[in-house]
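Supplementary Methods, section 5.1.

A reviewer requested that the exact input to the structure prediction be made available. We therefore reproduce it here, unchanged from the version used in the analyses.
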Amino acid sequence: MLICQDQRSGNGCGAENPDGTANCQRCGLSLRFAVHLHDPGTRVGHYEIMRMIGYGTYGAVYEAQDLRDPTRRVALKETFEAAMIVRFQQEFDALSQLSHPNLPHYYEVFEDDGCGYLVMEFIPGQSLDEILNRQKAPLSEQFLIGYAEQLCDLLSYLHSQHPPVIHRDIKPANIRVTPEGMVKLVDFGLFKQGIQRTRQTLHGLGTLEYMPLEQFDWSGGTDQRSDIYSLGATFYHLLTRHYPISAPKRMIKEKDPLRSPQRLNGHVSRHVSEAIMRAMSRLPPDRYPNAEAFKRDLLGKTQRYIQGAMIRRRLVAQAQFIYSLAWKPGGHILASGGEDRGVHLWRPSDGALLGKLRGHSGKVLALAWHPDDDLLASAGADRTIRIWRSADLSLVTKIERHRDTVTCLAWSPDGEVLASGSGDTVYLWAQDGTPISEIRCAERAKIYSLAWRPDGQMLAVGYDDHEIRLWQIAEHLSVFNLQGHTGCVYSLAWSPDGQSLASASADTTLRLWHLANGRLVDELRRHKNWAAKLAWSPAGGGEGQPWLWRVSDTSLCLVITGHRNYVYCVIWNPDGQALASCGADSTVRLWRTDGTPISLLIGHSDWVQALAWCPDGDSLASASLDGSVQLWKMV
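The structure derived from this sequence is encoded token-by-token as follows.
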């Protein structure tokens, strides 16, 4: 493959052209000095190219398969320049002897057809630059602190070597976050992703906005304080979404023009802002002498948020959306269903995959364990329900009478009846899959939520026509139509005594209803966006933080702040002493009942949209759009 980019000048449109093409098929530029990349399937040394990760004027990075070891994927770093092969050898000699959890492993260096190749561990996940661009908002301080601790510890390790190892190109694009929440410092400094231009770089010296002044000096007078500057500039960018002013531009002014992170983002703590500004001091003597001192000031007196060590197991490896989670009563099995059309069963004690229940031909959107038996119901886009026996992974029955996607499932408290919502109809099924009845509540209105009253005598149904309908199951009698919402009803939750019902809607409100007369007790109109999830003890949901309400008088008890994007799920642990929340900032957070943070659980690389506590309260499962289910052990 030839990329329309002249290696001498950098000019070109970036279009891909087949090998042997004389002029770019898009812009007509001569491809004599174009960037030449390997196509997937090409063999280089002992490695087969799987895909191109990134490229630049001077080289490229590929994901490749080690043909000598089928289990090993590697990152193959290629240089087009003969002079750089010596630098590759120097880099390998320096780094292959190091061993640290936040560094990739380096395997070998070799030459092939005039190019040099450095072979290193392939790091799955995303770079901090990709995470920042994806969420389109600054990273939260709490989110960053978990990474900052790891990076400062890594720099302390590198700088303690004899001689010290100085990275000289720390920036968000060179920090990757694995699916387990571990950061890895890599060096893709010479490359850019796809055909997009990177920020301006100096060949072999770094990226301008993250470079300290001394790094512009070709004499190379850098030390550990140079890396501390770059790390501070990296944190500056992540917390503000503003590139730092380059060091030369800062030096031409008598007064430093760099504004503090706190001025650009009021959510940044004063001590964190001050620590970053000191790390980015224009002159080396004014910076922190070492990374440990920088870390100490970053943490200040704040909570040491638990991150990587809290992760017990990442249960799902493939990049498929997970739509539903369900713990078996007793907590011995966790089920997950998603985009890959299968239902996975996991053993939480060691993370072992017990089996994959196959048969659905569409996304699995809903799961429900039978309250007393070994039965699991699954349903989704293929319009079917399947009831499985987890002991032997057998299919007990398949239910096919739905006319639309099945969006929700709920077993009655006694386990005798399974309710399913599909289109505008609620279906009731016996435990063996025998149909009991259909309740068509509203023509052309779609069902989004179901909730059995604790005594099993009544079923609440939420619709996209903004109404809630309560059905007395024994008589198939509609008791109340609860009207008042002006948006789709996404969540319903009965109070433990069955006397009140809470509802959450796309109209941004939570509503409390009294069962005796269907009267609206109160409307909790405080949210600025969709109220997406409810959990009794008492209630919560929302847009950027969980909200706690006192049900007796509907007063607002507490607003818990911390999430930097939408909150998709809140759930109380079984004893009601802790609250878990998750959302679009890719984090899971644990809170005490007074709103004090307990821990920040970092490990997902995309929005976290579902949570489920193990019945014993010792484990928490989270599902994300990154295709993983994370299992967290509470310590």
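The first strand starts at residue 2 and ends at 3. These observations are discussed further in the main text.
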